[in-house]
Amino acid sequence: MMLDAAAALIPWVLLVFAGLFLVLSALFRMAGAAFETAAAPRIARLERSGDRRAARATRLIEDPDRRRVLAFAASVAGLCGIALAITLPSHGFGMHWLWGVALALPLVTLFGFIWPTNYGRRHADRLALSLSAFAQQAMRFFLPVLALGDRIVGLGPPPTPEEPDAHAELQEEIERRAAEAPPQPPRGRDDRDMIEDLLDLRDLLVYDVMVHRTKVVMLNADDPPEKLIRESLSARFGRLPLWREGPGNIVGILDRHDLLLALTRAGGDGARVAPTALAKEPWFVPDTTPLLEQLRGFRSRNTGFAVVVDEYGEVEGIVTLADILDEIVGDIGETETTPGIRRLPDGGLLVDGALPIRELNRAMDWELPDEEANTIAGLVIHEAQSIPEPGQSFTFHGLRFQVLRKARNRLTALRITKVAAAPEPNA
């Protein structure tokens, strides 16, 4: 009786273990895809803020063995699950083992490979943090196994040398030549600046170059058509987001070229034109999208405008193709001045608080840090560890920042002057 009962439990035990191995295979695949596509700069910022998960995730992203260890672990778990599933039909179900193959392979392929890989890429940042401890334990367990395999393989003939990475070599050559280039006379942005900014795109996210929602001109889609036409034509931007029930709910993008074409066809009669019907569907992109990936997205979708959202889907701003090109070649429309910066007679600067730090650095050839803040106002708030009041001054990075104007919790205008270096004591 006991033997019969034990024999009856075998299929269910095998089923449980087969499911467990399938889940492990999915987690390994998911972790591998997440670490492969996670936004390293964003996770590095979380690490600097003291997040332990981000510290583990950063180490895994930089580990050269991470990819093959997680792929090996996923393969082992998947093979174990398939092996157990194949034996299930012949243990208590009275079926041929081929039925196990027919059932196991589609399940492992769908739920152990395709779905976890796609899900891991879609939610890369969040999963890289939540699966960092799991992946770290997998590295500790499977890395010695792979190291032993490497030693065994090493007993045979030496491996053939890998082909050099042409892209990496080209990149190193560009960086070397840019560093060795002779200094050019000051004439705005030279070729070396543009090459360096082009290489910097690898480390920049959409968040770093977007226009914040507080500076974006948006229209209420429920306004009368005449008002929409008037405000669209008077705005200095070619494309304007339309919202309903609040600026955070973008329902369309109105292109002024489409509006002018419709007005021309209507003989200039605005009453015959419906601006909301001309609006295009908005394209939402995460703020953690790398700039190079965003460039490819603009090209593939044949557009140059996107609405930026955070991890909760809240609108943060917009990004355009021109914003990314400005990072490479500078503001195409600028001559001797940069929007948001006004030089004062005493040599100081009057700066818009929303001015990105990168633009001020580019215009003044400074090196203010932009790791903890994106704008000048954000940098002052970070350094002061508080929201200053108008009239307060702070000195850091060799500059004095004086708050001139403030709107609610936003610093809207600041005065920046260089701090005179203290004289060196006589020897």
- State the major sheet: 5 strands, antiparallel
| Poorly predicted runs | 156-167, 185-189, 332-336
Helix content: 40-55%
Beta-strand percent range: 5-15%
Count of helical stretches: 17
Shape by Cα distribution? flat
Strand order of the largest sheet: 8-9-12-11-10
Average of pLDDT: 77
- Tell me the number of strands: 12
N-to-C order of helices and strands: HHHHHHHHHHEEHEEHHEHEEHEEHHEEE
Measured on Cα atoms, how large is the radius of gyration?
29 Å
Distance between the termini: 100 Å
Structural class: alpha+beta
Description:
The protein is of the alpha+beta class and 427 residues long. It contains 17 helices and twelve strands. It has a five-stranded antiparallel beta sheet, covered by helices on one side. Strands 1-7-6-5 form a four-stranded mixed beta sheet. A hairpin with a 5-residue loop joins strand 8 (341-343) and strand 9.
